[in-house]
Design brief:
Elements lengths: L1 E5 L4 H12 L3 E6 L7 H10 L4 E4 L5 H10 L2 E6 L6 H6 L1 H22 L3 E7 L23 H19 L4 E7 L1 E3 L18 H9 L6 E4 L11 E2 L1 E3 H14 L5 E7 L5 E2 H12 L5 E4 L8 E2 L4 H7 L7 H14 L7
Parallel strand pairs: 1-2, 1-4, 2-3, 4-5, 5-6, 6-11, 7-10, 8-13, 9-14
Antiparallel strand pairs: 9-12
Bound molecules: nicotinamide-adenine-dinucleotide (NAD) and uridine-5'-diphosphate.
């Protein structure tokens, strides 16, 4: 049996492929390389001593999916493929709905045709929008998303629930990630954003290697512990292990289930900055800027359900997140082009 990983060359995908291979799974990756390079998978092969079957293709291409489902006995699909830049989704909504929603519909139709009924979907804490209060539980209201990216995740969750209701064969888990950070402890694979990073930790680490001059802190007047935004940062290897736990639980899932993948702990921007400086020994220049449109003051997970039902919890703390981020960045100052 083989696991199909869509978007497996990307940041979270490549770390999850590594964890799957280490667990002895056979893995096929489908990725259009729109936001990744195949070098990530070469390094995964180097780290694990195992090989990955790679298809350079698009989830919107039904023929390509058909070929994979015909060629391999796929037991489970882990679906990471999609676009994820919030700002870009505002300026180019159709591209986002096309990739994230229409792409997922094509994938689901092909799964149905091939009688592949087990799916793990990359959702996001962004589906809670502005309706929920912290800590977010899975039963909190979803909706009130503030951008097309978030809405695309919400729409897919809705499609998955409707499908699971209509087709009882399906076992579907949506994993709502909080803020993934860090890298594999080897420093060989990590996050390699295109252009100027939108996310906090890639931005800080690019300041540390001199690629960017200083961090801009988006607001210090939020009603939080020190006025800066608070988030639930989770180590990408904890996240990868969360997918393995979800995969083990899929046979027990009738229909659709959503789980938070977070640590349950919120850190402010200043706390993240200080922790990075401690791990790297580098002082990060910064300036406080106005708030970024659409940002929430604070967001962190209630992790009880994933503990109870998936038997999983995050085990890596902020020091390990910072150590591994810095280890990857300093070994690969230009990302995979280094
Ligand atoms: P990423 O961009 O590194 O990985 C996504 C991968 O999908 C890339 O390799 C890209 O080339 C590929 N891809 C995009 N569109 C495709 C298509 N139409 N067909 C085939 N391949 C395609 O992003 P990531 O951070 O690894 O995120 C993985 C998933 O997790 C995404 O669905 C993202 O929305 C979700 N997610 C990410 C975060 C985060 O902060 N990183 C948070 C919550 C949810
Ligand atoms: N942030 C910041 N400067 C940056 C990037 C992010 O101050 O250059 C802040 C942002 O306002 C938020 C936190 O860091 O409070 C996490 O932002 P990120 O974009 O990484 O995640 P998200 O907002 O999607 O949760």
């Amino acid at each position: 049996m083989t696991v199909l990983v869509t978007g497996g060359a990307g940041y979270i995908g490549s770390h999850t492929v590594l964890a799957l291979l280490e667990q002895g799974e056979q893995v096929v990756v489908l990725d259009n390389l729109s936001n990744s390079v195949v070098e990530s998978l070469r390094r995964v092969e180097q780290l694990t001593g195992r090989s990955v079957t790679f298809y350079h293709g698009d989830i919107r291409n039904a023929a390509c999916l058909d070929e994979i489902f015909t060629q391999y006995h796929i037991s489970t699909v882990i679906h990471f493929a999609g676009l994820k830049a919030v700002g870009e989704s505002v300026s180019n909504p159709l591209e986002y709905y096309q990739n994230n929603v229409a792409g997922t519909l094509t994938l689901l139709q092909q799964m149905q045709q091939a009688k592949v009924y087990r799916l793990i979907f990359s959702s996001s804490a962004t589906v809670y929008g502005t309706n929920a209060t912290v800590p977010y539980t899975e039963s909190a209201p979803v909706g009130a998303t503030t951008n097309p990216y978030g809405t695309s995740k919400l729409m897919v969750e809705q499609v998955l629930q409707d499908l699971a209701r209509a087709e009882p064969h399906f076992s579907i888990i949506a994993l709502r990630y909080f803020n993934p950070v860090g890298a594999h402890e080897s420093g060989l694979i990590g996050e390699d954003p295109n252009g100027i990073p939108n996310n906090l930790l890639p931005y800080i680490s690019q300041v540390a290697v001199g690629k960017l001059a200083r961090l801009g802190i988006f607001g210090d007047d939020y009603p939080t512990k020190d006025g800066t935004g608070v988030r639930d940062y989770i180590h990408v290897m904890d996240l990868a292990e969360g997918h393995l736990a979800a995969m083990r639980s899929l046979p027990r899932v009738n229909g659709f289930k959503a789980y938070n993948l977070g640590t349950g702990v919120g850190y402010s921007v200043f706390e993240m900055l200080r922790a990075f400086e401690k791990a790297s020994g580098i002082t990060i220049p910064y300036q406080v800027l106005p708030r970024r449109a659409g940002d929430l003051a604070a967001c962190w997970a209630d992790t009880t359900l994933a503990k109870q039902e998936l038997g999983w919890k995050a085990v890596r703390g902020i020091d390990v997140m910072m150590r591994d981020t810095w280890n990857w960045q300093r070994q690969n100052p230009q990302g995979y082009q280094s």
